[in-house]
Structures are given as structure tokens and as C-alpha cells.
């Protein structure tokens, strides 16, 4: 499923137009993004939790040349599935 498929599913499930569903899906995604940027977690009971995880700078190796390179620190999005989602999949 991609964003377009999700928009179609929301439009059909909620009985709204694709334009309205696009606005709703985009608002949800941007709200989660803003929450993570602020350093908070976005937790949805039964579904899962989105959080921001800081990865420290580290040394890496170029596999082609074997040369050591510096890999910069970065913040990465992380998702942990909730109990309800895990049970629904199994």
C-alpha cells in the first residue's frame, strides 16, 4: 500500500471525496512528523508508537576501497508495533 492507496481506502471507508481524504491523510502524516521534530512520541494504542532516535556519529568503511570514512550523526524515525497490531498479524 502506498499513499495513494491509503487515500482511496480512507475516502471509501469514510464516505468522503478523494480531495478530503488527501487532506486528512496529509494532516495525519504532518502531525506525526511535527511531533517527532519536537522530540515527542506519537503513540496510538493498539497500533504502535513512532519516536525519533538519535544515531551517534561513527566510523564506517568504504567496501570498494577499504578506506575508513566518517558517518555523521542523524536523527532517525523509529516505529514499534503495538500489541493489537502484532496480534492482528499473527
Give a nutshell description of this structure.
It is built from three helices and five strands, in the order ααβββββα. With 90 residues, it is of the alpha+beta class. Strand 3 and strand 4 form a beta hairpin.
Write the layout of secondary structure elements.
Blueprint: H1 3-14, H2 18-37, E1 42-44, E2 48-55, E3 58-61, E4 68-71, E5 74-81, H3 83-89
Antiparallel strand pairs: 1-2, 2-5, 3-4
Helix pairs in contact: 1-2
Rg to the nearest angstrom? 18 Å
C-alpha geometry: elongated
Quaternary state, please? single chain
Q: Order of strands in the sheet with the most strands?
A: 1-2-5
Can you tell me the CATH superfamily of the largest domain? IHF-like DNA-binding proteins
Helix count equals 3
Whole-number mean pLDDT: 95
Strand content: 25-35%
Q: And the CATH topology of the largest domain?
A: HU Protein, Chain A
The CATH architecture of the largest domain can be given as: Irregular
Order of helices and strands: HHEEEEEH
Span between N and C termini? Answer: 19 Å
Specify the helix fraction band: 40-55%
Please provide the count of β strands: 5
What about the largest sheet? Answer: 3 strands, antiparallel
CATH class wording of the largest domain: Few Secondary Structures
Poorly predicted ranges? none
Give the class from helix and strand content and strand pairing.
Answer: alpha+beta
Structure description:
The protein has 90 residues and is an alpha+beta fold. The chain folds into 2 domains: 1-40; 41-90, IHF-like DNA-binding proteins (HU Protein, Chain A, Irregular). The chain has helices at 3-14, 18-37, 83-89; strands at 42-44, 48-55, 58-61, 68-71, 74-81. A 3-stranded antiparallel beta sheet has the order 1-2-5. The chain has a two-stranded antiparallel ribbon with strand order 3-4. The chain is elongated and about 55 Å long.
Amino acid at each position: 500500500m502506498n499513499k495513494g492507496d491509503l487515500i482511496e481506502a480512507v475516502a471509501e471507508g469514510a464516505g468522503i471525496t478523494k480531495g478530503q481524504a488527501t487532506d486528512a491523510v496529509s494532516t495525519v502524516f504532518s502531525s506525526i512528523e511535527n511531533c517527532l521534530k519536537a522530540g515527542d512520541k506519537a503513540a496510538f494504542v493498539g497500533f504502535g508508537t513512532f519516536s525519533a532516535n538519535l544515531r551517534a556519529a561513527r566510523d564506517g568503511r568504504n567496501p570498494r576501497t577499504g578506506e575508513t570514512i566518517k558517518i555523521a550523526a542523524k536523527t532517525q524515525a523509529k516505529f514499534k508495533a503495538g500489541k493489537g497490531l502484532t496480534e492482528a498479524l499473527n
